[in-house]
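Single-chain item
Fold in token form
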Amino acid sequence: MNARETQQEDVYDDLTSRAFLHSSTLSPLSATHVSPSSLKSSSAPPTRSPLALPWPPLESPSSETCMINGIWRKIRGRFNSYGAAGSGAIHRQAILSLFAQIGQMYHLTWFGISDFGNENVELVQSIADLQFPKAAILGNHDSWTTPKFSAKTKDRIQLQLESLGDEHVGYSRLDFSELKISVVGGRPFSCGGEHLYRRKLLSARYGVHDMEGSARRIYNATLGTPEDNLVILLAHNGPTGLGSNLNDICGKDWSVGGGDHGDPDLAQALSRLKDSSNLSIPLIVFGHMHKELAYRAGLRKMIVVGDDETIYLNGAIVPRVKPVTVSHEQGAAQQSEGTLRAFTLVEIVDGRVARIAETWVSVLKDGGAAVAEELVLFDGKPLG
């Protein structure tokens, strides 16, 4: 999160608002975790059928409600002890829900760009226990009070990393063979800018002492990526080079005159990958930089498409959950309290990013859910 967050009241939101809109099956996809020290390729993915279906069929309100409620029921029971609507809370988290189409079915992969909370081990464990494909990277709030690893006991950062296991992709790669997608992680615990945040943690666990070493670790994580896979880079903060105005995707909105608050190591790794490899890297996903600018100065640009058609996507919508009251028109008039929950949805078809939408879902206390609003950010080209 950015520098102004220490002055803000904690805003909590809900995991399940970013974990549905899936096909009717929730069978886990196979995934292979690869660290730079053990470069193993996943098995050859199956051949996909021609991709003919459009964007997940949300045109019909009935099918839309069915899809949402079905996945809601599968997930909500895990979180009865965590707050609103019987589900868990995630602190200021940027989420990407990725649809990839295989034959005649859509599959969802859930990406957590953090922050999960101020070292909220219990929540991270609950997320790790969810049985669907996912990848995550810890952010600066996930290392909020721990500057270095404890030599005597397992600290809360170690417990979070153990909970996520291979699904934490910091400086590593997770291959989803069915989807022909590889997720490569950027630097964990990033706070943005030139400062190497939590240097002692990075040094002890990853052997990283400076930005150059960090860029090298990100680059090395891509080595051995299956030839047919496209690569998605998952980071807590975006790279430098995307603008320095207040409202740019990684621009300093709390500083007079703005400035580029991107991660230089991520930019270095990307530049080297584009110069020295034939990997397809259509999408860079991150959070950290809030959509709403400091001092109510407007809204941030949340998507950038580079000259090489690489898409840079920021998912940091804060607050992600808003209270709402819904009126029922049929029968006796009544009010039902609920929430609006935001998540970012990406559709990839035939190895290309086809559509990106910021989607708000209305969730009622009785368990009902429906898409309330959708802001399309990309539909073959950036919109808005």
